Amino acid sequence: MAEMPDLELIHPLKLFDIAKNEKRFLYTCAPMVRYSKLAFRQTVYAYGTDLCWTPMILAKEFNRNRFARDSDFTISTNGPQPPTIVQFGANVPQELARASSLVAPFSNGVDLNCGCPQSWACSDTLGAALMEKRELVRDMVVETREQLRRDGWGVDKEKDIDNPKGRSVSVKIRVHKDLRKTIDFITTVLGPDQDRHIDWLTIHPRTRSTPSSTPINLEALEILTSTFGDRVPLLLSGDVFALNALPFTSPLLTTTPTFTTSSTPPPPTAATSNPLSHIPNLAGLMSARALLANPALYAGHDACPWPAVETFLSNVARCPLPFKLVQHHLSEMCGPGMGPNKSALLTKQQRARVMGCGNMVDLVDFLDGNVWSDRATL
Ligand SMILES: Cc1cc2nc3c(=O)[nH]c(=O)nc-3n(C[C@H](O)[C@H](O)[C@H](O)COP(=O)(O)O)c2cc1C
Fold first, then answer.
1. Are residues 298 and 316 in the same domain?
2. Residue closest by Cα to atom 2 of ligand 1
3. How confident is the prediction along the chain (378 residues), in pLDDT tens digits per residue?
4. Which residues constitute the domain of residue 201?
5. Where is the composition biased (Low complexity) (predicted)?
6. Substitution candidate for ligand 1 out of 33, 35, 130 with most atoms within 8 A of CB
């Protein structure tokens, strides 16, 4: 990392601004442990994603171990380098500040994970356990901003929007069962309106114990966006499955991309046939599971197109991933997606063949011999 030349990096708030001027949501790719690695980030970036998160990286390990740094954080120096937010898991202000200082030359901003519900994380007061520690979270972001300022980075949010050294500090949260606690949490972490402590906030409107199969809490989202949406840019994480089937309305939904569909349009889902909540104060969308299945989601494809798979494989050739991960990505991209369009690029049997391949050469041979050759003769 130390030998890299200075990168020209855009301030993430500038991307929020561009999207707003285009009267659309900011499109972002969620942090996903194991999956939101460089080759995948490059793929979603090629298909309209504005801003990408790395998987959560444990700040303490990152600070102490060079191998953790090399394996957890990869960027591209000569290929497409998507605007990237490095997400950390941390519970000590100096640890988050130190790790942020290490990645600041190579990333557009840093983010603190206050949403991971896994028991190992919560028992270490990481992830969602931090939703009970609002002063600590505030101290962590304040310390990080101060450290980055001491290092010479521009951390004055909108004032540094055109500064090539401008960097962001943000937080991703879940909600509490009692929403008043979430309001207290955000109020503390945000700090004063004239000089808020964070650039933006990502809200995943589920509690720590809500399964991901339960729909997001739209009422909580409505309350939080109307309370805080004019004080800090807000992103929604959760159930962003298809841009033409979001379970709410917003003025920023008038300019969604034209949809490319490989089959007849799906019937309205339960969500779209119900009266929809109106969420006017939301700046952007963050997608995890739906982007895994369809990296072209934000480019207006309602199911994964083959060229996205090809783009992913050519990114993997340049920025390798462990083979098991490549297989998992392919089975996600080639199966039915999260949105209403349930068409799939490969049949269940073909996906099982993909999972049965022993290495990259077998995998490419299988696709070449069975799938891509069929496409060529169509
Ligand atoms: C495989 C996987 C890994 C995840 N890893 C992280 C992570 O590292 N950090 C984080 O804040 N959230 C993580 N999440 C949660 C997602 O970022 C997101 O908030 C959640 O999946 C809801 O979004 P979705 O409905 O679009 O999937 C992960 C989710 C998945 C499915």
1. no
2. 32
3. 445 556 779 999 999 999 999 999 999 999 999 999 999 999 999 999 999 999 999 999 999 999 989 889 999 877 778 999 999 999 999 999 999 999 999 999 999 999 999 999 998 999 999 999 999 999 999 999 999 999 999 999 999 999 999 999 999 999 999 999 999 999 999 999 999 999 999 999 999 999 999 999 999 999 999 999 999 999 999 999 999 899 999 999 876 677 776 554 444 444 445 578 899 999 999 999 999 999 999 999 999 999 999 999 999 999 999 999 999 999 999 999 999 999 999 999 999 999 999 999 999 999 998 777 666 544
4. 12-308
5. 254-263
6. 33
Please indicate, yes or no, if residue 22 is contained in any of the structural domains.
Answer: yes
Residue of the nearest CA to atom 19 in ligand 1? 237
Query: What spacing in Å lies between the alpha carbon of 328 and ligand 1's midpoint?
Result: 16
Both 296 and 315 in one domain: the answer is no
| Domain final position from 249, 277, 308 | 308
Give the separation between CA 115 and CA 126, rounded to whole angstroms. Answer: 9
C-alpha–C-alpha distance, residues 363 and 28, integer Å: 29
C-alpha–C-alpha distance, residues 54 and 41, integer Å: 8
Evaluate: CB of 204 within 6 angstroms of ligand 1. Answer: yes
Asked whether the beta carbons of 25 and 252 are under 8 A apart, the reply is yes
Do 246 and 321 share a domain, yes or no?
Answer: no
Residue 168 lies in a domain: yes
Residue in 116, 106, 124, 29 with CA at minimum distance from that of residue 70: 106
Same domain, 327 and 293: no
The CATH number linked to 101 is 3.20.20.70
Mutate to test the pocket of ligand 1, among 32, 216, 235, 286 (most ligand atoms within 8 A of CB): 32
Q: Which residue's entry shows tokens 């191998």?
A: 67
Q: Is 202 in the pocket of ligand 1 (CB under 6 A)?
A: no
**Residues 340, 344, 347, 352: is their CA dihedral positive or negative?**
negative
In a domain, 6, yes or no: no
Expressed in angstroms and rounded, the spacing between residue 49 Cα and the centre of ligand 1 is 16
Both tokens assigned to 23: 């009267």
Asked if 376 and 367 count as a contact pair (C-beta separation under 8 A), the reply is no
Catalytic residue numbers read 116
- If asked whether residues 92 and 185 sit together in one domain, one would say yes
Domain count within the chain? 2
